[in-house]
């Protein structure tokens, strides 16, 4: 007997961040799929975001996953040992867990996730155990999809779970990637053998842009009109105390060079420090920078930052090329590898129509020259 059509859908999407919801909306609209969206409520406002997505009708159903007991036990485990024990218990009872996640009776041709996130891992194991033929696709998760070499690798705990649950059965792995920049992805992952498809940028489809603007309540007042934007980051994590003071002084200098009405700081959402001489701050601090870009004119921006990878979002999501000045060569970082960062930004620069708009000064003299060029242009 054939399965009812309402229980046989093209796809399910798993999202754990607002950015992933944006990308899922782009994919489902461009692919014209009948699909369900499952939002793992790991962020504030997940239920409200689910309501807004539901109102657009882009997905067949929107499910916000909250309070699933076995998953909550894993996330609330106080120590690593207890967490491993909870994960293995969850995997041993994977049929019951899958039943708590998925809509009753629903089957899917495809599952989309950004990588082997926790819920996606569970369902991939369950599909494999039950010989369910759902194809696995991964989609763009922003900067991490490009410069995190381990993002698509299976961890040792998951390998152990696979052996326990599947025995000699093969795990259903990813068969396709959807990336905003397949070119950059392949440059960063030259060993990749999985087909990479284009995830269209938001400007490529007016319907996608309109729906995203509705869901995320993007309005003109949320835009930035100042030409120079300092993208702040958690400097105390990456800089010595001396260099932390130096970069604040540099911010003061930029304000003096360009004028108070032409500079604004987009602070990091988790940065709660007070500044002695504060520059005017973008009021919507908690908004992701990609939302800010949709409300602004990114091509007219000059983005200055120590090391915020949010600078590449205008290119990835909108194919816009603001001028970018990355300062990390001028300051001593206490963690991270500049060689890895250099490779990422060098390869990103190669995807630009005008590579000269992505700048990494190596000296104060080079920075001074860039400042003078910007001052004469704005």
Structure, briefly:
The protein has 378 residues and is α/β, with parallel strands linked by helices. The chain is 42% helix and 15% strand.
Write the layout of secondary structure elements.
Blueprint: E1 8-15, H1 18-31, E2 35-40, H2 46-56, E3 61-65, H3 69-75, H4 80-92, H5 94-101, E4 107-113, H6 118-129, E5 135-139, H7 144-147, H8 156-166, E6 174-179, H9 182-188, E7 196-198, H10 206-215, E8 228-231, H11 235-238, H12 241-258, E9 263-266, H13 289-294, E10 302-305, H14 313-318, E11 323-326, H15 338-350, E12 358-359, H16 364-377
Helix pairs in contact: 1-10, 3-4, 4-8, 5-6, 6-8
What do these coordinates show?
- There is one protein chain.
- The chain is of the alpha/beta class.
- Helices cover 42% and strands 15% of the residues.
- The chain is built from 16 helices and 12 strands.
- It has helices at 18-31, 46-56, 69-75, 80-92, 94-101, 118-129, 144-147, 156-166, 182-188, 206-215, 235-238, 241-258, 289-294, 313-318, 338-350, 364-377, and strands at residues 8-15, 35-40, 61-65, 107-113, 135-139, 174-179, 196-198, 228-231, 263-266, 302-305, 323-326, 358-359.
- A 7-stranded parallel sheet has the order 3-2-1-4-5-6-7, with helices on both faces. Strands 9-8-10-11-12 form a 5-stranded parallel sheet, covered by helices on one side.
- Helix 15 links the parallel strand 11 and strand 12.
- It is globular and about 65 Å long.
- The mean pLDDT is 88.
């Amino acid at each position: 007997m054939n399965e009812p059509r309402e229980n046989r859908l093209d796809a399910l999407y798993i999202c754990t961040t607002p950015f992933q919801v944006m990308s899922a909306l782009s994919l489902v609209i461009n692919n014209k799929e009948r699909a369900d969206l499952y939002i793992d409520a790991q962020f504030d406002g997940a239920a409200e975001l689910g309501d807004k997505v539901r109102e657009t009708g882009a997905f067949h159903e929107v499910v916000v996953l909250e309070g699933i007991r076995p998953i909550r036990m894993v996330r609330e485990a106080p120590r690593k040992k207890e967490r491993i024990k909870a994960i293995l218990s969850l995997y041993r009872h994977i049929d019951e867990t899958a039943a708590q996640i998925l809509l009753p009776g629903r089957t899917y041709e495809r599952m989309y996730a950004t990588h082997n996130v926790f819920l996606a891992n569970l369902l991939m194991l369950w599909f494999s155990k039950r010989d369910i033929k759902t194809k696995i696709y991964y989609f763009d998760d922003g900067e991490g999809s490009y410069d995190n070499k381990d993002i698509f690798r299976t961890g040792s705990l998951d390998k152990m779970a696979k052996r326990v649950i599947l025995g000699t059965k093969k795990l259903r792995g990813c068969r396709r990637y959807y990336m905003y920049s397949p070119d950059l992805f392949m440059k960063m992952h030259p060993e990749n053998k999985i087909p990479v498809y284009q995830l269209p940028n938001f400007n490529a489809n007016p319907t996608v842009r309109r729906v995203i603007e509705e869901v995320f309540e993007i309005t003109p007042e949320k835009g930035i009109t100042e030409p120079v934007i300092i993208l702040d980051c958690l400097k105390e994590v990456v800089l010595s105390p001396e260099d932390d003071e130096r970069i604040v002084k540099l911010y003061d200098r930029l304000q003096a060079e360009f004028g108070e009405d032409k500079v604004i700081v987009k602070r990091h959402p988790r940065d709660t420090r007070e500044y002695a001489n504060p520059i005017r701050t973008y009021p919507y601090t908690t908004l992701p920078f990609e939302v800010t870009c949709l409300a602004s004119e990114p091509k007219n921006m000059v983005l200055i930052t120590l090391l915020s990878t949010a600078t590449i979002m205008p290119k990835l999501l909108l194919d816009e090329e603001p001028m970018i000045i990355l300062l990390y060569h001028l300051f001593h970082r206490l963690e991270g590898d500049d060689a890895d960062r250099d490779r990422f930004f060098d390869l990103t620069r190669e995807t630009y129509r005008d590579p000269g708009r992505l700048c990494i000064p190596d000296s104060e003299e080079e920075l001074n020259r860039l400042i003078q060029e910007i001052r004469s242009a704005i």
